[in-house]
Write a structure and sequence with these properties.
The protein has helices spanning about 20-30, 45-50, 55-60, 70-80, 90-95, 115-130, 145-155, 165-170, 170-180, 195-200, 210-220, 235-255, 270-285, 300-305, 350-355, 365-380, 385-405, 425-430, and strands at about 5, 15-20, 65-70, 85-90, 100-105, 135-140, 160-165, 185-190, 225-230, 260-265, 290-295, 305-310, 320-325, 360-365, 410-415. It is an alpha/beta fold. It folds into two domains: about 5-10 and about 80-115 and about 235-430, Rossmann fold, CATH 3.40.50.1100; about 15-30 and about 50-70 and about 115-230, Rossmann fold (3-Layer(aba) Sandwich), CATH 3.40.50. The strands form four sheets. It has a seven-stranded mixed beta sheet with strand order 1-4-5-15-10-11-14, with helices on both faces. Strands 8-7-6-9 form a four-stranded parallel beta sheet, with helices on both faces. Strands 2-3 form a two-stranded antiparallel ribbon. α1 (about 20-30) runs parallel beside α13 (about 270-285) and α6 (about 115-130) packs across α12 (about 235-255). The protein is globular and about 60 Å long. Bound molecules: pyridoxal-5'-phosphate.
């Protein structure tokens, strides 16, 4: 009998992160345009970034090395939940009556319930190593905040979190999770920063956005000594840390004796998609025939409807200018339940791959993705995070297409998190 779960041992946890930039330069001969200083319009130099990030992460941001060694202290904490399982979705295949083989990499087994801990542990480690005492960050759905709260605590750092107000209200349990790990959590826009106060003055019921929360977290760092800022997605070093997902998945697909025809992930800032996709994109750059689908919400369609241009990463326009697909740094998406996908921009690396037509993108509305999540829960048992439901919907569509075409197709998607703290959203879907 074929295995349902493909499991690796702790020894098989990757020893390095894979740097896609090295391969882009080698095989494509080009790289994404660099971040610019908004005043001079010149590429930012590393010292500009040192106010907000530790040096080691800045080096990773611009590295062209092929592999970045994962420090032993980081691998030590990865062992709490890694390697994560690769699971063959036999029941979903049967339900869809499809000849497709569907596999999902399940990142929801991490203690905080999503892939975000992969970079949180690494970022907390590098900050601690450089003597930082306090981190600040933003969080949408609360997944990133929970992950960084745990990681900061494991390394003895303090953490201040600005949580997008709509999620703070929709998902009160995530706030409690962060507080259990010792973090201080404020709804954003807050009265703790000048920018937050300015927004509240214009609209005291503002639902918040990731762009605003990032501005508040940055303002707090700039005003305090020995503080640094930590970002849960978008930047090269964050995507780099997530490649551990795809590196494991590749070994697991090999053990299953298969290779994916299509690799799928949802995209907010782009980190879990990058995590599952980059190690396989390397094969595509070398000539292999494999497709990649980035899945976003219709209400925040940065790839499918945005413009590829330089834009700010935050609403207060404090960050360097990033070349990316963007809906505009002042865009406030509808308060959908997939809070982690409510970001106006997209990682420069993902944007570049999309522009170069190495990856595809699709967008779905909220009702459609919740139905896919429920079909998945009823067949595979796991209640997925609303963000991850986007990837599931695309995997289902690809499986249905395979059925129509009457051909076997191997589908791999990233199940970036579980949805056990997102039941409010499911409740509204079921009862409205
Ligand atoms: C479960 C889950 N999946 C996906 C995302 C989207 O982020 P990214 O595109 O960086 O993976 C989030 C963000 O909070 C999330 O919590």
């Amino acid at each position: 009998m074929k295995n349902t779960k493909i499991i690796l041992t702790e020894k098989e946890i990757p020893e390095y992160y894979l740097n896609i930039s090295y391969y882009l330069k080698k095989y494509l001969g080009k790289l994404p345009d660099p971040p610019l200083n908004p005043t001079t319009k010149q590429p930012v130099n590393p010292s500009d970034l040192s106010v907000i990030f530790p040096m080691e992460l800045i080096k990773q941001e611009v590295s062209l090395e092929e592999k970045i060694t994962i420090p032993e202290e980081v691998r030590h904490f990865y062992k709490l939940y890694r390697p994560t399982p690769l699971i063959r979705a036999y029941q979903l295949e049967k339900f869809l009556n499809t000849p497709a083989h569907i596999y999902y990499k399940y990142e929801g087994v991490s203690p905080t319930g999503s892939h975000k801990l992969n970079t949180a542990i690494a970022q907390a480690y590098y900050n601690k190593k450089e003597g930082i005492k306090t981190l600040t960050t933003e969080t949408g759905a609360g997944q990133w905040g929970s992950a960084l709260a745990l990681a900061a605590n494991l390394f003895g750092l303090k953490l201040i979190v600005f949580m997008v107000k709509v999620s703070f209200e929709q998902k009160p349990f995530r706030k409690i999770v962060m507080q259990i790990y010792g973090a201080e959590v404020f709804p954003s826009p807050s009265d703790k920063t000048e920018f937050g106060k300015k927004i509240l003055k214009m609209n005291k019921n503002h639902s918040g956005s990731l762009g605003i929360a990032i501005s508040e977290a940055l303002e707090t760092v700039v005003k305090n000594k020995n503080f640094k800022y930590s970002l849960g997605s978008v930047l090269n070093h964050v995507l780099l840390h997530q490649t551990i997902i795809g590196l494991e998945a590749k070994k697991q697909m090999e053990k299953a004796g298969e290779y994916p025809d299509v690799v799928i992930g949802c995209v907010g800032g782009g980190s879990n998609f990058a995590g599952i996709a980059f190690p396989f994109i390397v094969d595509k750059l070398k000539g292999k025939n494999v497709r990649f689908i980035a899945v976003e919400p219709e209400s925040c369609p940065s790839l499918t409807k945005g413009k590829y241009k330089y834009d700010f990463g935050d609403t207060a326009q404090m960050t360097p200018l990033l070349k990316m697909y963007t809906l505009g740094s002042d865009f406030v998406p509808l308060p959908i339940h997939a809070g982690g996908l409510r970001y106006h921009g997209m990682a420069p690396l993902i944007s570049f791959l999309y522009y170069e037509k190495l990856i595809e993108a699709v967008a779905y509305d909220q009702k459609t993705i919740f139905q896919a999540g429920i079909d998945f829960a009823k067949t595979e048992g796991i209640i997925p995070a609303p963000e991850s439901c986007h990837a599931i919907k695309s995997a289902i569509d690809e499986a249905i297409k395979a059925k129509k075409e009457g051909r076997k197709k191997v589908i791999l998607f990233n199940l970036s998190g579980h949805g056990l703290l997102d039941l409010n959203g499911y409740n509204k879907f079921l009862h409205n």
